[in-house]
Design brief:
It contains 14 helices and no strands. The chain is mainly alpha-helical.
C-alpha cells in the first residue's frame, strides 16, 4: 500500500525556516567576525610570526576542505539539527580554547578544532534548501548571505567594544556570540522525523548514479571563489602599490575605509537589488549580470587614483561577488535535489576552502614579485570565464526544462520544514 501524499510545504513554513536560518547564521558570523581582527595580534603575543599567522588561516581552510563535505553528508543522513548544533558547539569550544590559550600551539589547536567542525554555513544552507520551495530558493539564500554580511559588519564593533578589557575579552565576546548561535539552532531548527516523507522525498528518492551537480555549476562556483579569494587577499597589497589618494600613501586606515564601503555596498545590493533582478530577469540572466558587474569592477581597479574612483571600482567588484553567492548556491541546491542538500553545500564549501589556501599564496607570490598586472589579469579572467560559461548554451534533453530555470519542480515535491533526508 502506497503512503498517503504529504501536503506541500506552505509559504509560511518557508518563511519560518528562512527567519530561523538567518538568526542562526547571523549569530555565528557575528562571533567569528569579532575574533578575526584580534586573531593575528593575539597569536603574535603568544609567539607567532608572520608565517605562523598565515599558518592559522591555511590550517583552518585545509581542515574545512576535508570536513565540510563529510559534515554535509552527515546532515543528510542524521538530520540537520544535530549536525548543525554540533558544528556550532565546536566553534564555540574552539573560541573558548583560544581565550584560554597560553601558547601558540594551543592557538593552532583551537583553529584545528574550528576547522574540523566547520560545517556551520553549508549545513544551515542545506536546512534552508530542504525547507524552502524551489521558486523561492534564490531569495532564501540571498537572505542568508545578508545575514553573513551583517554579522561581519557588526562583529568588528563587538571586538572594539570588548578590546577595552584586553584581547582575551574580545575573544570571549566572540565565544558568547557563538554560544548564542548554538542556542538559536537548538530552539529554531526543527527536530527530524516530525512527518514521514511522502512520495519523491527522503533517501529512497535519491537518483541512483546521478552526479551531485553538473560540471558547469561547479566551474562557476570555482570561478567565484577564486576571484573572491584573489580580491580579498591581493587587494591590500595591490592598493598599497597602486593608489595615492590625495597624494598620500595607502595603508591600514585607507584599507579599512574601502572594506567598510565594500561591505555596505554588498549588503545594500543584496537587500535592494538581488530579489528584483531574479524576478525581472530570471536566475540565469541575473547570474550573468552579477559576473559582468564583478568583472567590470575588477577591470577598472587599476585606473583610479583618487577616492571616488577607488570606491566605485572596489564597490562594484564586491557587489558583483556578493550577488553571485546566493544565485549559484540556489542553482547548486536545485541540481542536487532532495536528500542531498548537505552533500551539495559541503562540496561547495570544500571548493571554497581549497581556493582559500591556494589563491592567497598565488596573490602574495605574484604581487611580492612586482607582477601586479598578472594578479589583476587573473582576477578579471576568472570573472570573465565565469561569465562566458554562464552564457554558454546548455544542452537540453527533448521535452525537459533546463534545471537552471526559475521554476523547476512542482511544489508538491518540496520537502517540509523539519524533514531530514
Amino acid at each position: 500500500m502506497e503512503p498517503a501524499p504529504v501536503p506541500a510545504a506552505r509559504p509560511a513554513d518557508s518563511r519560518r525556516a528562512r527567519a530561523g536560518a538567518v538568526w542562526v547564521v547571523f549569530a555565528d558570523s557575528l562571533g567569528w567576525a569579532a575574533i578575526v581582527p584580534v586573531l593575528p595580534y593575539y597569536a603574535e603575543r603568544l609567539g607567532a610570526g608572520p608565517a605562523g599567522v598565515g599558518l592559522l588561516i591555511s590550517l583552518y581552510a585545509a581542515c574545512q576542505a576535508v570536513s565540510a563535505p563529510l559534515l554535509g553528508r552527515a546532515a543528510d543522513r542524521f538530520g540537520h539539527r544535530v549536525v548543525l548544533v554540533a558544528c556550532l558547539a565546536g566553534s564555540c569550544l574552539s573560541f573558548l580554547w583560544l581565550a584560554a590559550a597560553g601558547s601558540f600551539a594551543a592557538v593552532l589547536g583551537s583553529r584545528l578544532l574550528d576547522g574540523i567542525t566547520a560545517g556551520n554555513l553549508p549545513v544551515a544552507q542545506a536546512w534552508l534548501a530542504e525547507s524552502t520551495l524551489e521558486p523561492d530558493r534564490a531569495r532564501a539564500f540571498n537572505a542568508l548571505a545578508m545575514a553573513v554580511g551583517a554579522g561581519f559588519l557588526a562583529g568588528p564593533l563587538v571586538a572594539v567594544a570588548a578590546l577595552g578589557a584586553g584581547p582575551r575579552a574580545a575573544v570571549l565576546a566572540g565565544a558568547a556570540c557563538s554560544a548564542l548561535s548554538v542556542l538559536a539552532a537548538w530552539i529554531l531548527v526543527p527536530r527530524p522525523g516530525a512527518r514521514r516523507p511522502g512520495p519523491g522525498r527522503g533517501p529512497a528518492s535519491r537518483p541512483k548514479g546521478r552526479s551531485l551537480a553538473r560540471p558547469a555549476i561547479l566551474l562557476a562556483l570555482a570561478c567565484l571563489f577564486a576571484a573572491y579569494q584573489l580580491f580579498t587577499s591581493g587587494f591590500p597589497l595591490f592598493a598599497e602599490r597602486t593608489y595615492w589618494p590625495g597624494g598620500h600613501g595607502f595603508g591600514a586606515r585607507e584599507l579599512s575605509l574601502v572594506y567598510a564601503f565594500v561591505g555596505v555596498s554588498a549588503l545594500a545590493t543584496q537587500l535592494l537589488l538581488a530579489n528584483r533582478l531574479v524576478r525581472r530577469l530570471g536566475e540565469p540572466a541575473a547570474t550573468a549580470l552579477a559576473f559582468a558587474l564583478g568583472a567590470a569592477g575588477a577591470a577598472i581597479l587599476g585606473l583610479p587614483r583618487d577616492w571616488p574612483g577607488i570606491l566605485a571600482a572596489a564597490g562594484l567588484c564586491g557587489s558583483g561577488l556578493a550577488l553571485l553567492r546566493p544565485l549559484l548556491a540556489a542553482r547548486l541546491s536545485r541540481e542536487a535535489g532532495p536528500g542531498r542538500q548537505g552533500a551539495a553545500m559541503g562540496l561547495s564549501q570544500s571548493i571554497q576552502s581549497v581556493l582559500q589556501v591556494v589563491a592567497p599564496l598565488a596573490a602574495g607570490g605574484l604581487i611580492s614579485r612586482g607582477r601586479l598586472g598578472t594578479w589583476h589579469g587573473l582576477l578579471v579572467g576568472f570573472l570573465l570565464f565565469g561569465l562566458g560559461w554562464t552564457l554558454r548554451p546548455s544542452k537540453k534533453r527533448s521535452g525537459q526544462r533546463d534545471r537552471g530555470d526559475e521554476a523547476v519542480e512542482p511544489v508538491q515535491d518540496a520537502p517540509l520544514p523539519g524533514e531530514q533526508a
